[in-house]
Amino acid sequence: MAGRKPSGMRNRPAGAIAVLLLIAIVYFLAEIPEEERGRGSPTKSGEQIPADAPAEGLVPVELVRTIDGDTIKIRYQGKEQNVRYLLIDTPETNHPQLGKQPFGERAKDRNRELLANGEVAIEFDIGQRTDKYGRLLAYVYVDGESIQEKLLEEGLARVGYVYPPNTRHLERFEQAEIRAKDKGIGIWSIEDYATDRGFDAGKAEQAGKSRETRNREEADQAGPFANCKELRAVHPDGVKRGHPAYSERLDGDHDGMACEAS
């Protein structure tokens, strides 16, 4: 008869039916792979997707120009937009307060050079896609190769501006930075220049003055000297052949030692 409940359901209490439905739902959810559940959205607790989640894919873009070591202008979705590289920081080239910092121009030139050699694409992370200046926040690639990782590897950038959950490639980038540090190249060639807050131009200036002083001292020690009196004022014991200050003219006995003490 119409409206009649099936015999299996007729005598079951409403509570028992609800329990059966709940068990069925739990079983269905258990069959869904964990990586599919919650993909693309926060979990029920409000937690973000893990930072090592697979990339959504690279988005081909048209490069308009290179602004500096960590910023470019591209054509994206029909309009020109600036892109700030995620997770790295390069020295400034023309900052209103900081001015031009050591290795800033080199980082910019290298960035331009790398971008000129293939197809440019960007990759967004799972968090915020723009910063407070309206710039896109992305990883940048040329023919699938990471520009950020390359700049870090060559000592032209430091890992910086780390704001979870935009940390997908953080571990790789940190390893690239460590390799450059160990080699002492680029920004790491100046002691204490690169810090976790940015770049200390004062340290670079001190290092430059120290190098200048050393160069001047080396020049003073190298001569040329007019006579042995002048040479001994700097090198009291004289100098051997091969030393920058050595001169056959001052090696009277031709024993390979100029102006040796008698």
From TrEMBL:
Keyword Membrane in annotation: no
GO molecular function, one term: hydrolase activity
UniProt xrefs under InterPro entries: Excalibur_Ca-bd_domain, SNase_OB-fold_sf, Staphylococal_nuclease_OB-fold, Thermonucl_AS
Pfam families: Excalibur, SNase
Swiss-Prot/TrEMBL keywords: Endonuclease, Hydrolase, Nuclease
Gene3D superfamilies assigned to the protein according to its UniProt record, in alphabetical order: 2.40.50.90
Entry-linked CDD domains: SNc
Region annotation Disordered: where it falls in the sequence: 201-262
Keyword Chaperone: no
EC top class named in words: hydrolase
Basic and acidic residues bias (residue ranges): 201-219, 229-262
Signal sequence region: none
Listed EC numbers: 3.1.-.-
Residue ranges constituting the TNase-like domain according to the UniProt record: 57-190
Protein name: SPBc2 prophage-derived endonuclease yokF
Name of the encoding gene: yokF_2
